[in-house]
């Protein structure tokens, strides 16, 4: 950015966003379109936009006074990442008009040009020492897939863990973080608790919000052992078997599991981005797709930034081949004979169905919190 001083030669010919201009005692900022008058030092209420919410489609150099938090910020970008940054911190100012910097500890911390990111892959505490605005992603654990044993009968994929994301203002305090554990895949139709049905995943909690664990997928032997052919409800629902409906998802967190229209094929587990695929007369259900959160939280975590994909459904023979879990950590099913793939760790993915062997467990959850620096 360039600081210009007005002369008799006229205004700068080719200013860029963020440039400043002094005309006698008045100061102006170039917002990409016009020179905008700046208020006297310390009087931040007339700088750029004064509102409770950020201006839409900002240009580099634009300023916004957040009337809720009382913080003056300016829009910066390094070409790949952009954010509203606290002017007091960026300029190093202090005294009247300066504000405290956002700061926090906890989890595994990475830093980009404009943000700090705290990732919790296990339970812990997020300690905020400087209040401000925080982006968050809360992903519950995925459900396990149902066990497959009977000839000509299919088994179903586990539902993905519920996913919640958004932005909130936090005060300086300690915030407990709980990461849900993946639900177990069915290992036998005679198991005393699950009875072949996949176990639902654990909830993840943070910032007074709860993401619901994914529903377990149904087994081909569920009813014979006193359970149900329907997938369990959850953040996203588990897939079903034997002409029944998939488990329900939770509104705002995930979708239902795939319905089964035949005894031969199991439905896919629901995902955060779409329902598990329903079976047809000739096709096993695939897992529902998850959600891509890479633009906010990067690609280090999840499946390259995707989370909460449902697990693939199963069939007793291998003529279907590998049936895909949903993008976002959903486990693939291994039809015929073989163990279903587990939902990927810290993605909230549902487990993939196996047959004649254990089905896949759900993937554990994760919490990620980001703030501008």
Structural class: mainly beta
Please, how many helices?
Answer: 2
Number of strands: 22
- Mean pLDDT equals 82
| Range of strand content | 25-35%
| Radius of gyration, in angstroms, nearest whole number | 26 Å
Largest sheet: 5 strands, antiparallel
Question: Would you kindly provide a written description of the structure presented here, covering whatever features stand out?
Answer:
This protein has helices at 87-91, 294-297, and strands at residues 3-5, 20-23, 26-30, 35-38, 49-51, 63-66, 71-77, 82-86, 103-105, 108-111, 115-120, 124-130, 132-139, 163-170, 173-177, 204-206, 209-211, 291-292, 306-307, 322-323, 333-334, 366-372. It has 373 residues and is mainly beta. The protein folds into 2 domains: 3-91, no CATH class; 102-373, no CATH class. The strands form 7 sheets. The chain has a 5-stranded antiparallel sheet with strand order 10-11-22-13-14, with no helix packed on it. The longest helix is centred in the first third of the chain and has 5 residues, at 87-91. It is elongated. The two termini are 19 Å apart. The model is unreliable at 40-47 and 91-99 (pLDDT under 50).
């Amino acid at each position: 950015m360039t600081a210009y001083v007005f002369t008799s030669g006229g205004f700068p010919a080719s200013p860029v966003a963020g440039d400043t201009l002094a005309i006698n005692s008045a100061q102006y900022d170039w917002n990409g379109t016009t020179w905008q008058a700046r208020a006297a030092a310390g009087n931040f209420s007339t700088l750029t936009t004064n509102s409770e919410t950020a201006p839409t489609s900002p240009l580099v150099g634009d300023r916004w006074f957040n009337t809720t938090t009382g913080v003056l910020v300016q829009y910066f970008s390094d070409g790949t990442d952009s954010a509203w940054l606290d002017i007091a911190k960026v300029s190093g100012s202090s005294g009247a008009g300066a504000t405290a910097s956002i700061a926090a500890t906890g989890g595994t911390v990475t830093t980009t040009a404009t943000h700090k990111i705290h990732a919790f892959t296990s339970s812990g505490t997020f300690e905020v020492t400087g209040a401000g605005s925080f982006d968050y992603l809360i992903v519950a654990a995925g459900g396990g897939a149902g066990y497959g044993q009977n000839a000509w009968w299919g088994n179903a994929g586990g539902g993905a863990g519920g996913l919640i994301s958004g932005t909130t203002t936090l005060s300086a305090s300690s915030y407990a973080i709980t990461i849900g554990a993946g639900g177990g895949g069915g290992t036998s139709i005679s198991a005393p608790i699950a009875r072949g049905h996949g176990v639902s995943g654990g909830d993840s909690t943070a910032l007074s919000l709860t993401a619901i664990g994914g529903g377990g997928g149904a087994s081909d032997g569920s009813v014979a052992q006193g359970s149900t052919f329907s997938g369990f409800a959850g953040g996203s629902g588990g897939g079903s078997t034997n002409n029944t409906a998939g488990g329900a998802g939770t509104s705002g967190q995930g979708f239902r599991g795939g319905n089964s229209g035949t005894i031969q094929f199991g439905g896919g587990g629901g995902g955060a981005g779409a329902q598990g695929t329903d079976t047809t007369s000739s096709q096993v259900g695939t897992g529902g797709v998850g959600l891509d959160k890479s633009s906010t939280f990067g690609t280090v975590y999840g499946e390259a930034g995707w989370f909460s994909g449902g697990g693939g459904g199963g069939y007793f023979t291998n003529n279907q081949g590998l049936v895909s879990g949903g993008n976002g950590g959903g486990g693939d099913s291994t039809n015929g004979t073989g163990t279903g793939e587990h939902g990927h760790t810290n993605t909230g993915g549902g487990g993939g169905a196996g047959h004649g062997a254990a089905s896949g467990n759900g993937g554990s959850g994760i919490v990620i919190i980001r703030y501008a620096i």
